[in-house]
Amino acid sequence: MAPAATSGNGVRAPAAAQPLIEVRDLKKHFPIVKGIFARPAGTVHAVDGVSFHIDPGETLGLVGESGCGKSTVGRTVLKLLDPTAGTITVRGEDITAHDAQQMLPYRRQMQMIYQDPYASLNPRMSAGEIVGEPLAIHQAATGGERRERVAALFERVGLRPELMDHYPHEFSGGQRQRIGIARALALSPELVVGDEPVSALDVSIQAQIINLLMDLQDEFKLSYLFVAHDLAVVEHLSHRVAVMYLGRIVELTDKTTLFETPLHPYTEALLSAVPIPKYSARNRKRVILKGDVPSPINPPKGCHFHTRCLYATARCREEAPQLREVAADHLAACHLHDDGIKLPLGNGAAQNT
User: Fold this and answer.
1) Cα 147 from Cα 266, distance rounded (Å)
2) Can you point out the beta strands (E) in the chain?
3) Strand, coil or helix: 252
């Protein structure tokens, strides 16, 4: 049985008998080719062995630095990118090898909200046509019925139906993102992947969109994979949080436990950089990491984080740690916990300058 999720206020909720979606050892590598003969010149290890599940009605936040593979995970889970290895299971059925025709029923169940509200809408289509396009493609509604459903979606996301005949350039950024949300909801999906859907918006508009997403989740029993780099946003919206570093998940647990008791040095550094008042009573000191994130073309041997870790050992440089349960429903990929060593993780006692 899957670990219990938590509600928006951090209270644990009973686990579902079967996850809505389950990902096991997912990998996505991009080949690098050079020259007119497209000779292989390397590989980008964008996603390098990621595992997680999402229960019905749950939000899993996926956080990490830019370039760590968060967006690639979201696109691969939806089969917009074909995985290099691993499995993707939806309600117990393995869809990893499904072709475009076999994926059609799952397209209705899984939709995406894109990061850029300016680039994700076709400028040659009216807003109503954009929202109604999924209904037309899947032959879910035609003619007047389609227009009625689009008008209802406009109202539900906070737009006036009279704006259906307007074009994307006539809307503000927040309004465009509402159009993108309405499009994602058109086929009544169960899972919505949000690829940093508020990062391009003003702070005041971000709050409106986040509250809208939460209201829609309650109303339609949606599950979210919410990709973001803003920890405050993730803390507000998510039930559980997975922390990514250079293509791998290094920690995964419910949001309250993660923010109060991080068990991975990278999570500790992230939380010290962006303190959230609700969890700041511990007076964490700033953890400053040395160096830059290594290249995904040539990731370090062993633990990917060892080149910047305050606590790295010889074992970390040779052996990749497995994501395992270190505490109750709290997974971490760190050798430091194997021998029961209690280091100053989470208390900010160490500082790398």
Assistant:
1) 49
2) 5-6, 12-13, 21-34, 39-54, 59-63, 85-90, 93-94, 110-113, 191-195, 223-228, 240-245, 248-254, 324-327, 330-332
3) strand
Decide if 24 contacts 77 (C-beta within 8 A).
no
Residue type, 229: H
For residues 263 and 330, the answer to whether their CB atoms sit within 8 Å is yes
Beta-carbon neighbour count of residue 344 at 10 Å? 14
Extract the tokens encoding 344. 């100053």
Long-range residue pairs from 3-7, CB within 8 A, at least 24 positions apart, any chain: 3/329, 4/254, 4/329, 5/55, 5/58, 5/239, 5/240, 5/254, 6/239, 6/240, 6/254, 6/255, 6/256, 7/239
Whole-prediction pTM: 0.88
Cα separation, 55 vs 227, whole angstroms:
16
Q: How many helices (H) and strands (E) does the chain have?
A: 10, 14
Q: β-strands 93-94, 85-90: how paired?
A: antiparallel
- pLDDT tens column, 169-215: 999 999 999 999 999 999 999 999 999 999 888 888 999 999 999 99
Average pLDDT over residues 240-245: 96
Q: Taking residues 266-277, what's their average pLDDT?
A: 81
* CATH H-level, domain 5-10+17-337: superfamily: P-loop containing nucleotide triphosphate hydrolases (3.40.50.300)
Quick one: 181 exposed, middle or buried, by C-beta within 10 A (0-12, 13-18, 19+)? buried
Confidence (pLDDT) at 10: 41
φ/ψ of residue 170, rounded to 5: -90, 0
Polymer length in residues for the chain: 353
